[in-house]
Amino acid sequence: MTRTKHIPLIKRPWFAFLSSMRFAVALLSLLGVASIIGTVLQQNQPQVNYVVKFGPFWTEIFGYLGLFDVYASGWFVLIMLFLVISTGLCLWRNIPPFIREMKSYRLNAAKKSLAAMKHSTLLSGGLTPEIAERYLKVQGFNTKKAEREDGSTLIAAKKGAMNKWGYIFAHAAIIVICLGGLIDSNLLLKVGMLTGSIVPDNDSLYAKDFKPESTLGSNNISFRGNVNIAEGQKTNVVFLNADKGMLIQDLPFDVQLKRFHIDYYDTGMPKDFASDLIVTDSKTGKKTEHTIRVNHPLTVDGITIYQASFADGGSDLKLKAWNLAGNSRTPALMDAVSMQAFPLDIGEEEYKLEFDQFTAMNVQDTSMPSEDKPLQIQTAINDVRSVKQNKKFTNIGPSIVYRIRDKAGQAVEYKNYMLPIRQDDDYFYLTGTRTGLEQQYRWLRIPTDSNGSIDTFMAIRELINDPAVLKRIIGNAAQAAPANIRGTFAQGAEHTLNTFRNGGLVALGDDINARTPEADRETVWNFSSRIVYSTLNTVLDEAIRTYNLPEWQDPEARNRFLIHSMEAYTGLTAYPAPVLLQLSGYKEVRSSGLQMTRSPGASLVYLGSVLLVLGTIFMFYIREKRAWLLFDQTGIRFSMSSSRNERDLQKEFPKHTADLETLAKDLNH
């Protein structure tokens, strides 16, 4: 019976493949490509940001591939794991030969092999082995002498054998760095999710609603999570992204945001932001106060707290609300809080009012032409302050973003500025609308009076929708017309004003196009628009007298106000909201975005970096050289070799040869 031949482990095909340089280089290349993706593509952003940027189709694909969290994705972790295995097997295979090579003096070098070396020569007689050995030691070589059976004497010398440690350190650095990355990755989290012991939560909004299987204990060895804390609030958890859900990570302490500070550049970009924190230990109850800012984190119980971002933390808002279903010029007053939702009942219709972020500062570049940058500073308002002395960048004041959602779940987003914005020669209250995040805002401009208020426009809107007022105005205008056309004039004016009242200039233009031959449309349009303008002019006079509103000193400014009012009324008839909101006051509350990490693998990464530096130094700055002196009956053979840097030997070998020749001559003399 034949016995199966035993194949050593390091000679098996799978071992050779895993420990090969080609396999390791391929893995390093994949990691390099993945790192480029992780650098170019912003990681761990809200899902909505990716949908806006790439669309739902590609967002789904990129999310499935893990490109939004590359460094914690399963395939990235798997590549690192295989790289650790490959590099470890490579070291296992090569360290023993390296150690033997570093210890070996190559005393078995034959005479022929020495003579065949590129740097080899015969020396003149008179040099003894003892003197030659002493010379090599003085030159920094470690030497060893061997007496051979044929009567010859070989002196083998070497220096720079530590060069081999460079290869060992470099390979060990890769292993240590990857192990650090694996420890700080979601490897254990992924395993827990695969086994079912950890289940991401897709539905809960608040930390208290997360189930135990979606909560990680404070003894978790590594994590990276985020949390937003409003001023005056505290937390003892952070939120972790996990696939399409979230996990809660308990902390061994409470963090309270005492105050948030922020400074701006001239362009309105954040210059510096910092958080004053109160940290309370959960076990001892000890409180400590710290201030963290960008690039100046805080480490508590092995958990590092970074200043990551800032946002609105739920500011108190005061708003004026005009019911667009009615015609009253008097708004209802409303108190609200940003980042929260409120029910909105208008008549029999039920809506949901969802406030988004409040922004106290909106900086615009006023050096650009108005047609390129329409929003400019309103210098007459005290609350607006300049943020750059050269008047290039200015703050146009606070704004609020909100959504109104109907019963069917359909929502329209609005962005309203608190203060009037100057465009060309006049000031407007701006409100923008859009139905999707990918769309640009469509702006409605409501002209303001000399007090910077839209009260005059709202008074005009109230009176023009009063049938009694319109009837009186039409009657007065008809009396000024010839007697034979008064009835026709009154009927036409009433039709024109009713059409304008219901749909603005757009409806008036559509009505003229439908009822008038094409050749007469321009004439009819000019006549109808003059009727509307004259009516608004009369209504404006009545509104000023009735409600004690400010008058215009400049006739041109009054004329522009009337034209802008016609346009604003037209836009308001198509306004998609049942209510018009205007921000009238606020008390800002800021929120600090903190990132908290526990990363014990970071110390391994630092250690690996040190090993990598040492490996580079050993490989490139320590040169291994070997020398032999063979003394036999035919003479003295001197040879040198180097595994690298043969160019250095071209200078060193002639020098050593000359020194040995000189030493031999001196001894003979």
From TrEMBL:
Keywords, alphabetical? Cytochrome c-type biogenesis, Membrane, Transmembrane, Transmembrane helix
Q: Which superkingdom is the protein from?
A: Bacteria
- Residue ranges spanning the membrane: these are 72-92, 165-183, 604-622
Ranges where the ResB-like domain occurs: 21-653
Q: Which Pfam families match?
A: ResB
- Gene Ontology terms describing biological process: cytochrome complex assembly
Q: What is its membrane topology?
A: Multi-pass membrane protein
* Keyword Transmembrane helix among record annotations: yes
Q: Which GO terms describe its cellular component?
A: membrane
InterPro entries in alphabetical order: Cyt_c_bgen_Ccs1/CcsB/ResB, ResB-like_domain
Compartments where found: Membrane
- PANTHER family for this protein: CYTOCHROME C BIOGENESIS PROTEIN CCS1, CHLOROPLASTIC (PTHR31566:SF0)
**Name of the protein this chain belongs to:** Cytochrome c biogenesis protein ResB
Species the sequence originates in: Neisseria zalophi
